[in-house]
Amino acid sequence: MKIFVDSADLDEIKELASWGIVDGVTTNPTLVKRSGKSFKEIIEEIFTLVDGPISLEVVSEQAEDMVTEAEDLYNSVSKKYQKNVAIKIPMTPEGLKAVKILSSKGIQTNVTLVFSANQALLAAKAGASFVSPFIGRLDDIGQEGMNIIEEIVEIFYNYNIETEVIVASIRHPIHVIQSARIGADIATIPPKIIRKMSHHSLTDIGIKRFLKDWESVKK
Ligand code: G3P
Fold this sequence. Notes:
binds SN-glycerol-3-phosphate
């Protein structure tokens, strides 16, 4: 399973990329706001940190405006990085129209705010490169978010659909294990959860013990 960093924090992305575990990045307007940087600053640097799909979200609501905004974003990235641009488009009928147009122009799209398998199926039919079902937000309203991942993965498998499933709105490390067991293509994970995945208290205890024992070894 590929791991994307769900963040617009350039320092965090750089650090996690140095671990050798990052296959891509997803951002959204909330994450850009949280980073405290301008969108321009983020776009200028983010492509230099990770050589994989980088999702950048449009904020227009009409298909034509989404396409214009997407093309502006795509063209604002230097030519060598354009292959990594994935335009995040919200899952609406207007969004589907935009996805169809952008995919015919060879621009990758990531259909976001997906909350059902039917939405994912429509997005894939329109030509989305990625779909992003938000499981944590479903859990928040008392629905088992992971169920839609199972449904989408099964449906895409049945019909050899090439659209990749990005499990999004991940809230804890168990979500990541569940995504991988189901066979989702990608999990997009907030940095703090990637750090939790790397940690085990027995690892810390083991290191302490080895270091202590090493002190009393004749060198
Ligand atoms: O990519 C954005 C998505 O992961 C949102 O997560 O935690 O705001 O539901 P959250």
